[in-house]
Structures are given as structure tokens and as C-alpha cells.
Design goal:
This protein is mainly alpha-helical. It is built from nine helices and no strands. α3 crosses α5, α7 crosses α9 and α8 packs across α9.
Length: 153
């Protein structure tokens, strides 16, 4: 009984539908169906617990589904043709090459200490590893890396 009430609410409520439309775009109906499936999998006790904050729970679930690794990620990019994808990839590649060239040019103009410490940071991945490798205190490494990042952005 509670499941059917909950499902009716989700399907008929315009605010939930609007939120799904904004977040999932053209896949908003699939998003609402996934939400209904999640509700069907809940027990009566769980639904009773959720009842007090039902609207918040629905919105939060929709947001979680539409995150980078959410359930709705499988529906993304389905309507893009291979030619469009290739065009997007080539444009992205050209843009990243231009950006990389600009960053490398600005990096070469920096003081040798900043440049080499930043290169080491890029290779090692963490400030702690750079600090251990160079013997420079981590606070000094952090300050230098932060300054370089600020200058490059």
C-alpha cells in the first residue's frame, strides 16, 4: 500500500519530474523509471522511514543516479553518432594540444626551481613523494606547487 502511494507521488509530482528533466535531460523518463525501480526494491519499513523526508530523498536519489558513476551514466552519449564522437574527439585533441603548448611555454619562462619542482610533482603525483625525493620540507614544496599552479591557470 505504501509503495503504491510513494510511486504515485513520484510519478505525478511536478517538482520531482522537473528536477529529473533538468538533471537527466532527454533521459528524464528513464531516470524516473529507475527511481520507481529503487522504490519497488525498498521494504515497507524503509519506506516508512523515508516518508518524513520523501521529497528530499527523491531529489537526492536522482542526483546520485546522475552522477559520474550513477545508474543513469549508462544512458549518456547514446544519441551521439560515431561521426559526431570523432569530431568531438578531434576538437578536444586540438584544444588540449594548444593548451599544453601554452602551459609548457609559460612553465619554461618560470624560475628553474619552480619549473623543476613542478615537473617532479607531475611525475611523482604527490607533494609528500616530492618532499621525500628532494629533501625539501613539504610545506615549502606545497607553497611552490601552489604558486606554480596559480600562475599556470
Amino acid at each position: 500500500m505504501l509503495k503504491t502511494q510513494f510511486l504515485k507521488y513520484v510519478i505525478t509530482d511536478t517538482s520531482i519530474r522537473g528536477y529529473a528533466m533538468r538533471l537527466a535531460g532527454p533521459n528524464w523518463e528513464d531516470c524516473l523509471q529507475e527511481l520507481a525501480l529503487i522504490i519497488c526494491e525498498k521494504s515497507e519499513k524503509e519506506l516508512l522511514d523515508i516518508q518524513g523526508y520523501r521529497n528530499f530523498w527523491c531529489v537526492r536519489t536522482i542526483r546520485n543516479m546522475n552522477g559520474k558513476r550513477g545508474v543513469m551514466a549508462k544512458y549518456r552519449n547514446r544519441s551521439i553518432t560515431k561521426a559526431e564522437k570523432d569530431e568531438i574527439d578531434s576538437a578536444t585533441w586540438e584544444y588540449s594540444k594548444r593548451c599544453d603548448a601554452g602551459v609548457l611555454e609559460r612553465l619554461e619562462k618560470m624560475h628553474w626551481y619552480q619549473r623543476e619542482l613542478f615537473k617532479c610533482y607531475v611525475e611523482e603525483g604527490t607533494i609528500r613523494k616530492v618532499s621525500e625525493l628532494t629533501g625539501i620540507p613539504s610545506t615549502s614544496v606545497f607553497d611552490t606547487i601552489k604558486k606554480v599552479k596559480d600562475e599556470l591557470t
